[in-house]
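Narrative progress, year one. The postdoctoral researcher (J.K.) led the effort to move from monomer predictions toward full complexes, under supervision of the PI. The following entry was the first complex the group processed end to end, covering 1009 residues in total.
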Amino acid sequence: MKRVLAVALLAVLVLSSFAFAEKTQITWWHAMSGSRLGVVEAIVDSFNASQPDYEIVPLFTGSYAETLTKFIASYPVGSAPNLIQVYEVGTQTMIDSDAIVPVYQIPEMFGETWDWAQYVIPITAYYSVDGNLWSMPFNSSTAMLYYNKDIFRAAGLDPNKPPTTWAEMEEYGQQIVDSGVVENAFSTGWPDWIFEQMLATHNHLYANNDNGRGGLATEVAFNDDFGRLILDTFVRLHDKGIYIYGGAEYSANSAFKGGQIAMLLQSTSSLAGIIKASEFEVGTSFLPRFEGYPIGNSVIGGGSLWVTKGQSEAELRGVWEFLKYLGKTDVAIQWHKGTGYFPVSGSALKVLLDEGWFSQDQAYLTAFLQILSGRRDTAAALGTRLGPFVEMRDQYRTSFEKALAHDLTPAEALDEAAAKMNQLLADYYELFGD
Amino acid sequence: MVEDRFPKHRLLPYLLIAPSIIVIVLFLVVPFAQSVRSSLYVSNVFGTKTIYVGLRNFARLISSPDYRSSVLTTLAFSGFVIVIGLSISLAIAQLLNQKIRGVGFYQVALIWTYALSPAVAGVIWALMFAPSTGIVPYIISRITGGPLINWMTSGEIALFVVAGAATWKMLGYNIVFFLAGLQNVPNELREAARVDGAGPWRTFWSITFPMLSPTVTFLMFVNMLYSFFQVFGLIDIMTQGGPGNATNILVYKLYRDGFIHLKSGSASAQSLMIFVVISVAAIIQLRVATRKAIYAR
Amino acid sequence: MILLSRRSWYKLLIHGLLILLVITIAFPVIFALITSTLNFQQSYEYPPRLIPSTHFFANAAVAWERINMGRILLNTSFISIVVALAKIVLALMAAFAYTHFKFRGRALLFPMTMITQMLPLPVRILPTFGLMASFGWVNSYYALTIPFFASTTGILLFRQFFMTVPRDLPDAARVDGSGPMRYFLQILVPISKTNIAALFVIEFIFMWSQYLWPLIVTTTGEMRVVQIGIKMLLASEQIAPEWNVIMAGAIIAMLPPLAVLILFRKSFTKGIAMQSEK
C-alpha cells in the first residue's frame, strides 16, 4: 500500500512539474489582414516551434486605428497585449503615452548588447528619438509609381521609360488621354501621404521643429510656394482629366488592376497584390519629381512593433527573443517575399540582392533603390512625427477634395488645411508639451 | 386608474422595480453625468492628464464648419429615412390592408427586412453599388446612357445610397406598425365616408390618416433614433463617414473623434449635443402627438 | 376579352403590385444570395452575373474559417437570448409593480422612460466604457449584456397590457389566498405570452444587430459578435473585395434573426396590433 502511495505521489509530482514548465505566453495584437495574416502566422509558428520557453499568440485586432483604440482601452485596466503593432502615424502618440518600453532599453535589461545598425537605417531613423530606437520596425513600405506597360505601348509611349518628373507626368498623361486608350492617365492612393512624399522627396519640411523630431511640432511648414506648387499641379492635372481622384486609401488599386488607368502612385506594399491580379505587364519607378528642386527621400509608412510597459521579466524576455527573431535574415526574407514590405535587416537585403531575387522581377527593387538612393541626414527626408497626425491627414484630404472640386483655390485649400492643422498641433502641445 | 391590488405588500413593488432602476442609474444616468463632466475637459490618451477648459469644446464645435455640416448631413439623412420610409411603408401597408387572399404570405414577404442588421444591409448595398462592378450602377447607366455612378467619389451619391440602404432596412418594421394601426381604423367610419360620396383619396386623408397619428408619431420617433444611432454599423461598413465627410453623421463623427482621433473631451461634448438634439425632437414630437391625439378624438 | 368584374381587375392589380413590391424589396438580398454562390472570377463578371453557381458552401466555409464564425455565432446567440430574456423579466416585474401597486416610486415611471429613450448608447459611450473598465468587464459577456438589461419599451408594453386585465382577477386570486407573486407568475405572465413573444423578437433582433458597442468593448476574437465579424470579412482583402465570400458570411449572419422573426411572426404582429389598440 505504501508503495502504491509513493508511486502515485511521484506521478503527481512529475505531472505537475509539466504544469510548471509551461511556456510563457506573449500576446501580440496586429492589423495584418488578408494574405499578410498567413505570413504572420507562419513566422509565429516557426518561432514557437524553435524554442521551448515562449509562445507568441498573435491576434488580428482589426485596422490600425481599431488596434490602437483597443490598446488604449485595455492598457489602464491591465489587459493590454505584450506586443502591439501601431501605424507610423501613431508613433508620436505612443512615444508620449508613457505606456511602452522603448526598444533600445531592452537589451541592457538582459545584459545584452545589440547592434542596431544591422537594421536598414532610413527605416530605423523614422522610429528613433535622438538616435535611439523606440519601436521595432516591422512592416515598412514607401510609395512609388506603378504603370501599365501595355497601355504605354498602346498610347505610343516607350514602356521602359516611365515619367520621372511631373512635367513628364503631364506630357505622357496628356498623350495617354489623347490616345483614347483610357479615360484618365493616373490616380493615387493615400492622397495625404502622397503629399507628404512630395514634400519629403524634395527635402521640404512638413512641420516645424525638424518635422516634430526635435521637439513637438507646433506649426506646419508646407504652406508656401512649394506646397502650392504641389497642389496646383494636382488640380491642373485633375482639370485636364489626366489625374482622377482615387479615394482615401487603396480604392484606386482596382482601377489600376482593371486597366482603367495607366499609372498609380501607391504604397509599395500593394505590389504583390497588383502583380498577382493584373493581366498586363506591370512596371514600377520612382515617384515623379519637380525638376530643379532639392533631393530628399521618400518617407516610410506602415507600422512598427511597440513593447508594452508593466510586463513580467519572463514576458519581456520572450518579447525580446521574438523581436530578435524577426530580424534574422531568413525570417526577414520570408516576410519580404510574402508581403512586399521591406526586409528590416541589412543582411537580408544583401542576400536578396545576391540571390538575384530582384532581377527576377525589377519591380521589387524600385522601392529599395528609391529609399537607399535618397538622403538620410535631414529631418525633412526622414519623415514626420506628429501627435494628431491621423486627424491632420483627414484634414488634408478634406481640403484637397475641396480644391479638386474648385470649392477652394489650391492656395485657399492649403491655408484652410494649415490653419486647422496648426490648431490641432496647438491642442496636442497643450496636453503633452512642456 | 391603477389601484392597490395587494395592499398588504408594501415592500414588493420596490423589489420589483429595483433591478430596472439599478441598471438605469448605473449604466445610463451615471455615465451621462460623467459625460457632462468630461465635456468640460481636454485629456490625453490615457486620461492621466486633464485640463479644464470650460465650454471651449462646445464653442469649438459650434463654430466648426465640419460640425455644422455634420448636423446638416444628419438632418438630411434622418429626414430622408423618416419621410421616404414612412410614406412608402404606409402605402405598402395600405395595399396589404385590402381583403385579398394570401395576405399572410405577403405580410411575411414584406416585413422580413426588419430582421436584417444595419451592418448586413450596408454590406449588401455596398455590393450592389460597387463602383465599377456593381449591378445598380450598371442598370442605371444602361437606362440613362450616362457614366457609371461612383458612390466612393461623389458625396451626394454616397449619402443617397446610404440613406437608401437605411430606409430599405426599416421598411419591414414600419409596415408592421402601420398595418396594426390601419386595422384599428373602424370600418364604419370608412363606410360612412364612402356613403357620403368621398373618394378613396379623400377618405384616406380625412379619416384614416388622422386616426393613424399615434402610429405616425411613434414611428417618427423610432425612425429618428434609428437614423441617428443604429445606422452606425451601416455607415462604418459602407463609407466610414466619407467620401470627404459626406456621410459623416453626428454619431459617426463622435466615434471618429473619440476613438480614432482620441479626443475624449470633444467626443463628450458631441454626445451631449446629440442628447440635446434628441431631447428637443422628442419634446416636440410629444407635444404634437398630444395635440393631434386630442383632435383625433 | 376576358369578362372580369371591376372588382376582379382591382384585386388583380393589388396582387400584381404586391408581387412587384415583394420582388423589389427582396432584390438586394436575392442578388446577395446569387453572389454568394459564385466563385471569385464569376463575382467580377461584367455585366454583373445574375445566374447562380454552385460555390455557396465553399464560400461559406472560407467565411466560416476566416472569422471563426462558429464562435461568433455562439457569442451573438448567447447575448441576444440572455438580453432579450432579461429585458422581458425585468420589464414584466416593473410593469407589474406599476399597475398593481400604489407606492411612492410610481412617479419614477415617466422620467425613467424618458431617460432611457433620450440616452441611447452613443450619448454616454465613453463613460459607460470606462465603467466597464473599472468593473473589469471589458471583453466579457458581462459588458455585452448587463448594460442592456433595462427596457422601458418592454415596461410600457406590459403596463399597457396589464391595464386591460379584468379587475376582478387579482381580487379573485387574493380571495383564493395566493399572494401577488403567485398571481404574477401563474396568471399574469401566462396571459402575456403574445406580448412576451413580440418583445422577444424585437429585443433579439436589436441585440443581434449591435455593432458600435461590441466594436469598442470586445478586444479579442473570442468575444467577437457577428456584426463585427462581417466587418472583418470586408477588411480581409485590401485590393479587391471578395464579394462572394462576404455575401456568404452575410447570408449566414442574417439567418438566426430571420428565423426568430418568422417563427414568432404571428405573436409578433399580434402583439404589436394589441399595443396599437387604444
